[in-house]
Design a protein that fits this description.
Length: 280
């Protein structure tokens, strides 16, 4: 689709696995962005909905296209941007944890984030206000359970265990795939044992093809969903094994470490919110 200044609308598949962004305002240089983030929701790269033509020689047509990169970010653990490893523009305001950057406070890009329940200084790894979710074992100014690699806090109220969230999503997709596969098998039952030639002779060749195609798609979808879910299960077992080894090698240190876990079942099993569980 033609745009302006010899640039053209690009789809995400022109680049790599991006999610589709929302409108970023009338003053923005572009209308929409494609966003690439990591497992924590930290925005790593954004590109516009344009692709930039690189002319051939002579310049009569484009040899290939380059993405219109709006921002790139690389973060320290608690969200401060790494010097020399980032570039940004006022056109896109979001970064660490997917939260809005408030650069005007310190005059340094990515130094401060705003969310619904906090003002957050990425350089100190501390919030300005007390955490509305009280935990007996943790400072009210601590963030993400003091583990920003394992947890995220998109709203600034309580951290979420990234692996738990990923596993739950993978299980949900696996369950959907199972239901889809069962439905496809049920739809193909009437053609079981029937060849394509026999289906054509019975006048049901189109129904046969559609049912077989749906079954094939459902099987592929289930295979992918099952593999993703089993990967998360395997990862959980590996992490739990690390804690088990820790406990076996140094039980005294493990007990000291584990006393901050009110569930006594290992960090891997801590639910998202202690307050939600016990109403503290």
């Amino acid at each position: 689709m033609s745009r302006i200044n010899n640039t053209y609308q690009a789809s995400p598949q022109n680049f790599f696995s991006f999610s589709y962004g929302e409108s970023i305002g009338e003053r923005a240089a572009v209308d929409f962005l494609y966003v690439k983030d990591n497992h924590l929701g930290n925005v790593l790269v954004t590109v516009s909905d344009k692709k930039l033509p690189v002319p051939n020689i002579p310049a009569t047509q484009a040899s290939y296209y380059m993405p219109d990169v709006i921002s790139t970010n690389d973060y320290y653990s608690f969200g401060s941007l790494m010097p020399g490893r980032n570039q940004s523009t006022p056109s896109y305001r979001y970064g660490f944890n997917g939260q809005e950057k408030t650069d005007e406070i310190y005059g340094v890009s990515g130094s401060h984030n705003t969310a619904k329940f906090w003002e957050y200084d990425t350089r100190t790894g501390r919030r300005w206000n007390l955490d509305p979710v009280t935990k007996a074992w943790e400072s009210g100014y601590a963030v993400m359970g003091s583990n920003p690699i394992w947890n995220k806090d998109p709203n600034g109220d309580d951290f979420e265990n990234v692996h738990t969230e990923r596993k739950e999503k993978a299980k949900g997709k696996r369950d959907e795939a199972v239901a889809g596969l069962d439905a496809a098998k049920e739809g193909f039952k009437q053609f079981e044992g029937m060849t394509k030639k026999e289906a054509k002779a019975s006048g049901k060749i189109n129904e046969y093809k559609n049912a077989k195609s749906e079954l094939s798609d459902a099987q592929r979808n289930f295979t992918r969903a099952e593999a993703t879910y089993q990967q998360e299960v395997k990862f959980e077992k590996i992490v739990q094994q690390v804690f088990d080894n820790f406990k076996a090698v140094n039980p005294e240190k493990f007990a000291e470490f584990n006393k901050f876990n009110p569930y006594g079942t290992g960090v891997i099993d801590i639910p998202v919110s202690a307050q939600n569980e016990y109403n503290w």
